[in-house]
Every structure is written in structure tokens, then in C-alpha cells.
Amino acid sequence: MSKLFSLNWHDLLKGLIITFFTTFVNSLIDVLDTLQFPDADGWKHIALAGLAAGSAYLLKNFLTNSEGKLITKESSQ
């Protein structure tokens, strides 16, 4: 895990994975719900949901220290 108020490459990679899977699952749900592929406006909403999920993950990691504690200074060990 990265330190408080920082991100590393693993955080960014995991954020991209979350963005991809959120977009994939949302599009799958939309297809199963309507039995047709989304139009341009539907894809826009699906992509925004994926970006929101990935951004939320990165924000959580940015505000979490290397021990997984939210907005807490690093322990001095």
C-alpha cells in the first residue's frame, strides 16, 4: 500500500481494473435489462459510472496510509 496522500503504480493499476470491470458489469446489466446494446447516451452513462468507481478507489487509497487507516499519519516504527 502507498503512504498517506500518495499513490503508487499498483494503486493506479487497480484503479484501472476497477474502472474496466465496473464499466463491463454496467454494460452487461444494461444489455440484460433491455435485451439490446446501449446507444451512445447509454455508453456515456456506463463510462461515467466506471470512471466514478475508479476515481473513488484512487481517492480512498490517497486518503489511506500504508496500514490501511483512513486519514491517519504513518506510525513511526
Describe the structure in your own words.
With 77 residues, the protein is mainly α. The chain is built from two helices and no strands. It has one domain. The radius of gyration is 16 Å and the shape is rod-shaped. The model has no long low-confidence stretch (mean pLDDT 93). Helices cover 64% and strands 0% of the residues.
SSE blueprint and pairings:
Elements: H1 9-34, H2 40-62
Entry keywords:
single chain; mainly alpha; rod-shaped; 77 residues
How many domains in all? 1
Number of strands: 0
Share of helix, binned = 55-70%
Strand content: under 5%
Mean of pLDDT: 93
The helix/strand order is: HH
How widely separated are the two ends? 16 Å
By secondary-structure content and strand pairing, the structural class works out as: mainly alpha
Whole-angstrom Rg: 16 Å
| Main sheet attributes: strand count, strand direction, barrel closure | none
Q: Which term fits the overall shape?
A: rod-shaped
- Uncertain spans: none
- List the total number of helices: 2
Structure described in brief:
The chain is mainly alpha-helical and 77 residues long.
